[in-house]
Write a structure and sequence with these properties.
The protein is α/β, with parallel strands linked by helices and about 350 residues long. The protein is built from nine helices and 14 strands. The strands form two sheets. It has an eight-stranded mixed beta sheet with strand order 8-9-10-7-11-12-13-14, with helices on one face.
């Protein structure tokens, strides 16, 4: 398949599906072959906007299409497990939108199934694959700012929301933690390269029963710490700062950065520019394509064990708040004591 066009199928027709389709246009060896949506207007829009050859009104039809090389799952959080499982059962590699699943038990189930089927599986945490973040990891590996002691990152937005909106709907896995908070939490995991030894968190639970505002203090060995927050009710700077013993790195709009500001101790500011074209989602697509073409079942940039670890941490945080989603199984929080 190395010299052939890679055919993608997208499940879902919302905003993130459209952004992913835009990203695919930046990959000369990728093609959006098929789209499936249960909403006729969205299906028609995707079909016409991106000239998609195949359209399906059911997800099962797309998954069973023998010409689809991989599936991007872009449905709401509560459906990630079921739709990803359908694709894996059919032997299709899957790029599943974050959060990977609603809880760690679901994540573990998918990871075990992917291993059993020997099919590539990857969480679509697009930030990890952007050029600026690739360069950031290189800087940290080169010890440019010395021993990293602290990470600070925030992600807040203020959209106009009705109670039925997915961000506020518990049936759809709503709340700021799974949709927004996962970004600073995953970012911190990438920087420190390990799980925290302790987590303390707090949240404001709104009228619909989900967290509208939350903050997280993650403590690591040797006094290292991450100070993180998220909200779907207030606009906040989407920036991150990584502080080390030799200086610090400021990352503007860390969820999709195009610059890195390096402040060395007793040195001059250095600004590196790492622009990315289009939506930026093409890099995560390219990562899954590389896995499939090279016969890998997971990406070294975001291994499945790390995805599972992050889901376990999200479970722990929600357990501290007593926030459970409808229809979660009894095993939803098996690992909730991990960071007590």
């Amino acid at each position: 398949m190395k010299n052939e066009s890679f055919n993608w199928g997208i499940i879902g027709g919302g905003g993130i599906a459209r952004a992913f389709a835009i990203g695919l246009t930046e990959l000369p060896d990728a093609k959006l072959l098929a789209v499936a949506s249960q909403t006729p207007k969205r299906l028609l829009f995707m079909t016409e906007r991106f000239s998609v050859p195949k359209q399906y009104s059911t997800y099962e039809e797309l998954i069973q299409d023998p010409d689809v090389d991989a599936v991007y799952v872009a449905t709401t959080h509560n459906f990630h497990h079921d739709h990803t499982r359908l694709a894996l059962e059919a032997g299709k590699p899957v790029l599943v939108e974050k959060p990977f699943t609603i809880n760690a038990a679901q994540a573990r189930n998918l990871i075990e199934l992917a291993a059993e089927k020997e099919v590539a599986l990857l969480e679509a945490m697009w930030t990890r694959f952007l050029p600026a973040v690739v360069r950031l990891r290189q800087m940290l590996a080169e010890n440019i700012i010395g021993d990293v002691r602290m990470v600070k990152a925030d992600f807040g937005i203020r959209p106009e929301l009705t109670p039925e909106h997915r961000l506020l709907n518990p049936k759809l896995g709503g709340g700021s933690l799974l949709d927004l908070g996962i970004y600073p939490i995953s970012f911190s995991r990438m920087v420190f390269g390990k799980a925290p030894k302790r987590v303390n968190s707090q949240a404001y639970i709104g009228e619909t029963g989900v967290d509208e505002q939350s903050s997280y203090l993650l403590e690591y060995e040797g006094g290292r710490a991450a100070l993180l927050s998220s909200t779907c009710r207030m606009q906040m700077p989407m920036d991150a700062t990584i502080v080390g013993t030799k200086g610090y790195i400021y990352v503007p709009e860390f969820i999709h950065p195009q610059e890195l500001h390096i402040y060395p101790n007793n040195g001059e500011l250095v600004i590196e520019k790492h622009p990315h074209p289009s939506s930026g989602l093409q890099y995560e697509a390219a990562a899954l394509m590389e896995c499939v073409r090279e016969g890998k079942l997971e990406s070294e940039v975001l291994p499945l064990a790390e995805t599972l670890e992050i889901m376990e941490l999200l479970d722990t945080i929600r357990e501290q708040w007593g926030l459970h989603y409808p229809d979660e199984g009894d095993d939803r929080l098996l690992d909730a004591e991990t960071w007590r």
